[in-house]
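Deliverable D2.4 — example input (structure tokens):
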């Protein structure tokens, strides 16, 4: 459906795309080890002609634009935000769902939501977070809130509610250049990435699950297996929540990662990406092991090589695909072109509807 997309959203797309099927590190290692060979899609050939929204889709799929920056969301009085970024879908009690979306704007970021009924019609849209800055990615929680992450050196994680309650800051999850968050409900932990060239990989253990008001924050220290440095044992070093572990006097007790990006929990494993070296890593808490499952230096022909230079949106080649998420039924995919056509700064948020595989 989306054979290529920006690397920063890869993990969220793959986990959502497989609808919760447990795919362990060995599966992804095998996938990335194979060269990218053109072949038939399970959905049939992708059209050579883009539809009216600039998307090239297989037969049986359709698209619509559900929001544009600075324009009213259809059937609502809500103006859609600029630079739409990370997003997620949430089931609602009436059989409908909501799609949340961050705004990666300095000083006026925040997040909004679009509400759908059970038939997929837009019934509402509104702000769920305001007065924050550079809200990039984040992650959903199992209890139905959206964790919106600020990507600047004083950034915090904000817990956003879809029921009208005001969003609340969660400073115990750290003050640093936040990118993404992934919740492990089995071990009652939250994992966090830091988008700096020497950023850290964090683990937060709440004092009273599922409250994120207080708890202990740790950063990973990896003892890499020599000589490959493609896997290693992890020890968690407790750090202060007041500043980045990379700026701590004991910074050498933790391991640097080159630009932490997307982060996703699935089946006991936590996946995350680092954009500076185009790696995808997986952490197995049961074994306390971290493994590199994609490295272009090892597999130069893998599907993620050079993916930043490829687009499937006609005329959006200088934009970025952000916020991919499936609705609860798995038949509608949402994502944004962050800067829109010809990099004009008018973000566009899409829905693709069709017979996706479960």
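Example output (designed residues):
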């Amino acid at each position: 459906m989306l054979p290529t997309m920006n690397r920063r959203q890869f993990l969220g797309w793959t986990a959502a795309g497989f609808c919760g099927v447990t795919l362990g590190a060995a599966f992804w290692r095998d996938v990335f080890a194979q060269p990218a060979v053109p072949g038939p899609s399970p959905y049939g050939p992708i059209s050579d002609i883009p539809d009216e929204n600039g998307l090239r889709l297989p037969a049986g799929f359709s698209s619509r634009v559900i929001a544009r920056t600075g324009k009213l969301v259809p059937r609502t009085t809500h103006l859609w935000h600029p630079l739409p970024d990370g997003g997620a879908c949430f089931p609602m009690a009436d059989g409908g769902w909501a799609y949340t979306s961050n705004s990666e704007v300095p000083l006026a970021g925040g997040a909004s939501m679009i509400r759908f009924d059970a038939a997929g019609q837009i019934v509402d849209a509104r702000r769920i977070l305001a007065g924050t800055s550079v809200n990039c990615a984040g992650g959903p929680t199992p209890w139905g809130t959206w964790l919106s992450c600020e990507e600047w050196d004083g950034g915090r994680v904000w817990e956003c509610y879809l029921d009208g309650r005001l969003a609340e800051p969660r400073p115990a999850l750290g003050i640093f250049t936040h990118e993404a968050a992934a919740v492990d409900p089995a071990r009652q932990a939250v994992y966090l990435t830091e988008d700096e060239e020497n950023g850290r990989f964090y683990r937060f253990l709440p004092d009273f699950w599922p409250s994120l008001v207080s708890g202990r924050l740790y950063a990973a220290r990896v003892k890499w297996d020599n000589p490959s440095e493609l896997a290693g044992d992890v020890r968690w070093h407790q750090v202060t929540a007041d500043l980045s572990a990379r700026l701590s006097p004991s910074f050498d007790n933790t391991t640097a990662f080159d630009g932490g990006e997307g982060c996703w929990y699935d089946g006991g494993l936590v996946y995350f990406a680092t954009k500076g070296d185009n790696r995808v890593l997986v952490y197995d808490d049961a074994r306390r092991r971290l493994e590199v499952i994609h490295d272009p230096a090892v597999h130069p022909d893998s599907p993620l090589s050079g993916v930043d230079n490829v687009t499937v949106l006609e005329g959006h080649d200088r934009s970025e695909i952000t916020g991919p998420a499936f609705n609860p039924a798995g038949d509608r995919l949402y994502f944004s072109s962050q800067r829109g056509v010809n990099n004009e700064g008018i973000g566009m948020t899409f829905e693709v509807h069709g017979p996706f595989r479960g």
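Residues 25-33 form the longest helix (9 residues).
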